[in-house]
Here is the input.
Amino acid sequence: MSDHTLQSATLVRFAIVGCGAIAPTQAQALKEIPEFARVTHCVDTDCARAEAFAAKHGLVAIGWEDALRHPEIDAVTLCTPSGVHGKLAEEALRAGKHVVVEKPMEITVEACDALITAQRETNRKLAVISQHRFDPASQMVRKLVGEQALGRLIAADVRIPWFRTQEYYDSGDWRGTWALDGGGCLMNQGIHTVDLMLWLLGPVKEVYASVATAAHERIEVEDLVSATLVFANGALGTLFASTALYPGFPIRLGVFGTEGSAIIEGDVLHTLAIRGRDTVAGQVASSHAIQVATGGTRSAVHHAAQATPADTAAQAGTWKWGDAHRAQFIDFVSAIREDRPPLVDGHAGRSAVALIRAVYESARTGSVVRL
Ligand SMILES: NC(=O)c1ccc[n+]([C@@H]2O[C@H](COP(=O)([O-])OP(=O)(O)OC[C@H]3O[C@@H](n4cnc5c(N)ncnc54)[C@H](O)[C@@H]3O)[C@@H](O)[C@H]2O)c1
Here is the structure.
């Protein structure tokens, strides 16, 4: 089916590829948006796993080649180990399917570039899951940055102090390997916040980093990263990530401008302070962000008029795991219907991978890496 024949009311029919840990979240998210999507098939190299997943979620298990040829599958969503995203995504694009690929887009810049080329040549839609862009807190801070409410951005402070057990790394033979995970706490876990940081502050031009494998034994990759960043706009940043910090703590993303500061902690807006307006902090920031951020200005009225279910959920404190995946799938289907790029396209996916690879290169060489 071509984009031209996909009418605005057309449902996009998905196959989930890779029936492991993240797949149930995606299946549930797709089922919650029947006016946008259907999830009909699933694929896994482990046939028993595919059959079990199909039975549980009411799908049909199918082989990869059959999925590529199936006329009633419009799109595939890839939930496979990161190092096979590029190969599968390119095969799907060239078979005429639209593609959603879980983060990271791929594990090397070269593989990301190949995928961007395939997307351009096939004119299918390609989105990279970075669901936290759809959190109400992220959307709010992005809006404030776009309106220059924080002034000129001068600094970012990114902390991802997470914990993963050795059992987590042992739970899949691809986890913690260079070949298929492509890195450790930054490439797998920290990439969410790296993407948010790049979305809010723009590209990084210089990075200097150290990495360590501090608290896990049977992994090839890092579980601790400390880096300093210089952004293209002149802002300075710190980036600290780990999966070794027991028992694990919420991420924190601070965005600082000449007129104010916004701090996201976990998935919520923790602090918002804009010169001349009330500062809000803690849970209050999340529930009252819209009113305070807009402060009765014309844009406040505009924003209130456009309040989304996400805004409402955030204010009610009901935004939960899975909601952001659902929001990203709505964006993806809307991108197909409207023939526009999805919010997180291949270029965005590549930018996060390129920065993370630069962190690894800096740590390996002990020198500043320029992007
Ligand atoms: N967005 C998020 O919050 C989030 C969370 C977890 C994982 N992820 C990403 O999702 C991807 C999968 O992670 P996971 O934790 O679900 O992994 P997992 O190991 O639990 O599941 C991966 C599944 O893919 C299958 N598989 C492997 N190669 C395949 C192939 N060539 N074709 C079809 N199936 C294949 C495996 O048999 C397995 O069932 C990773 O890229 C990871 O970074 C994203």
Notes: The longest strand covers residues 153-161. The pocket of nicotinamide-adenine-dinucleotide is lined by residues 17-22, 43-46, 49, 64, 79-82, 84, 102-103, 129, 131, 172, 188 (CB under 6 Å). Residues 1-8, 290-308 have pLDDT under 50 and may be disordered.
